[in-house]
Write a structure and sequence with these properties.
- The protein is α+β, with helices and mostly antiparallel strands.
- The chain has 2 domains: 89 residues, no CATH class; 192 residues, Jelly Rolls.
- The protein is 13% helix and 33% strand.
- It is built from 3 helices and 15 strands.
- β9 and β10 form a beta hairpin.
- The N terminus is likely disordered.
């Protein structure tokens, strides 16, 4: 049997309760390997008796310790060093997690939730299957219906990732819809960034409208004033041929600051499809959506007004 290294340092107690006398060597000499000095007794010759509980004094030394405490220190000290070393090494690498968020709609992620309006048929959201080398997309359809696909982004800091980018396309526009008219307030697709609770919610909306002029904007309230929305018309039916995808890019943090006077700490993302007011049909697709720390200037810029 191989003795534990601690048994080479600490004396054992004999069965009759008396300590065996140590050879007349210092504690330092005891710790040296036997091959360092042939004249010193080898570890095989030092038959160290078992240590029992209690206060043990090492002959030849000027201190005494409780063996359990010393053994615990010897065993645990290297263990505590390991996480400390890992922490230091990680800090010296300079590698930090890149802030941001991205959804590519390869599948419907568990965090998404469809929320409709009371008494109104819900629009349908589903992820399409890739066809002919083309990637999957989020497809939404509304037949005299309305709904939003929502996800909370509690881990996202809008101050660090203020740039919202996405790639979208409209295949069917709701007939004669216009966001400026409450009776025609339908959009084939709208991208919403919201904050707050059900009783007090603020949202920024980027819409692909039908007849609303590009560059138009306004404020509207829903749910008896509990939901306050600042909307921007980025596209209208003149931009959509049912095939072309366009990339948009907005500083949503700045838009929040200008519209409501603050930048929210916690946000959610909403994707809407509506056609209930115009009693028509609407359909659109969303390829991907993301939040970035810096602008890319890769968006297709719409005219100032049209």
């Amino acid at each position: 049997m191989i003795a534990h290294p601690i048994s080479r340092i600490l004396p054992r107690k004999l069965q009759n309760g008396h300590d065996r006398a140590w050879p007349s060597i210092s504690l330092t000499q005891r710790l040296l390997p036997p091959w360092r000095n042939a004249s010193r007794p080898t570890w095989d010759k030092l038959r160290l008796p078992r240590v029992s509980r209690g206060h043990v004094r090492l002959q030849g030394s000027k201190f005494s310790v409780r063996w359990e405490q010393r053994a615990r220190r010897l065993i645990l000290f290297p263990i505590f060093l390991i996480p400390a070393a890992v922490t230091v090494c990680a800090g010296n690498t300079g590698i930090a997690a890149t802030p941001g968020w991205r959804e590519e709609f390869k599948a419907m992620s568990p965090g998404w939730e469809v929320r409709g309006k009371p008494g109104v048929k819900a629009a349908v959201f589903q992820v399409s299957q890739p066809v002919a080398g083309d990637g999957s997309r989020l497809v939404m359809e509304a037949d005299q219906a309305s709904a939003s696909l929502l996800m909370k982004l509690d881990a996202v800091d809008l101050r660090q990732t203020p740039i919202l980018r996405w790639r979208w396309s409209v295949t069917t526009f709701p007939r004669n819809a216009d966001g400026r008219d409450a009776g025609k307030d339908d959009q084939a697709i709208g991208i919403y960034v919201n904050t707050g609770s059900l009783l007090n919610q603020h949202s920024i909306a980027y819409r692909w409208e039908t007849d609303t002029p590009v560059g138009g904007e306004g404020k509207v309230t829903y749910a008896a004033g509990l939901v306050k929305v600042k909307w921007f018309c980025l596209r209208n039916r003149k931009d959509g041929d049912g095939k072309t995808f366009l990339i948009e890019e907005r500083n949503v943090a700045e838009d929040f600051k200008k519209a409501f006077g603050f930048i929210p700490k916690k946000i959610g993302i909403g994707i809407s499809c509506n056609s209930q007011y115009t009693a028509s049909q609407a359909a659109a697709e969303l390829d991907w959506i993301e939040l970035l720390p810096r602008p890319t200037n890769a968006a297709a810029k719409p005219p100032a007004a049209r």
